[in-house]
Design a protein that fits this description.
- The protein is α/β, with parallel strands linked by helices and about 300 residues long.
- About 40% of the residues lie in helices and about 25% in strands.
- It contains ten helices and 13 strands.
- Helix 2 packs across helix 4 and helix 7 runs parallel beside helix 9.
- It is globular, with a radius of gyration of 20 Å.
- About 40% of the residues are buried.
Length: about 300
Amino acid sequence: MQKRTAHQIADVLIEALPYIQRFKDKTIVVKFGGNAMVDEALKHSFARDIVLMKLVGLNPIVVHGGGPQIGQLLAKLGKTTGFIDGMRITDSETMDVVEMVLGGLVNKEIVNLINMHGGKAVGLTGKDGDFIRARKLLIDNRETNLLPEAQAPEIIDLGHVGEVASIDPAVLNMLGNSDFIPVIAPIGVGEDGHSYNINADLVAGKVAEVLKAEKLILLTNTAGILDKQQQLLTGLTLKDIDDLIADGTIAGGMIPKTRCATDALKGGVNSVHIIDGRVEHAVLLELFTDQGVGTLLLSRPR
């Protein structure tokens, strides 16, 4: 090994050491989605990141989405579904497909990838141990103006689309305190016994809140939160986020993601990271290096 290369490797390990010490035995909730879920190299790098986190003493919990995979299977079955504000209108037949894809195909693929790289992953939906209780998500069109007033009802029913009513952390605590890595599909069960599809960001945020996680990490298809000159912003506080939304810097699909982040911070999570899932080993780079690969959000200035 060349001397320069050896020093570079040593520098990387030394840089990671204080972060490993700081986060040992801490819970890190990671929302897995975007390009990282469809690119083969990125899927394997993510799985290795999660395994390494567990091996050095952290307690990672993975929450995943699967919208594109659901859309692909629905298309193969010849079933069309509409969207309102980015949320899929989900009737009973569509919910069957959602459960099959999220709780079966996607969840088990992630579990298998982590296990291939030396981890011990266990796949869950919110129905396992009844740990995610859901309620039907209803949208008030008078407040959102998602549909023209002439043709839209005041209350829009999206079918089997839900929001988190409560989370029982018992199953996650049991797994997190062992060698196992929980991998969660965002499906909850309502008081009526029906299954509900819940946004994966929201589930990840609520899980992080309930477990008082050290960090919530959200993988995206962007570099993070960008200013109006498209430069990466980091070290943002709750007030910074409100100001950036108010002046239009944060807009579109980034608004619900940042709202999820701020809710987690207000709920007791120490920090939230919105990172670029298109970068190999993005999770490790954000956790164990000084520079990171995304936007860090804090409840108060450091």
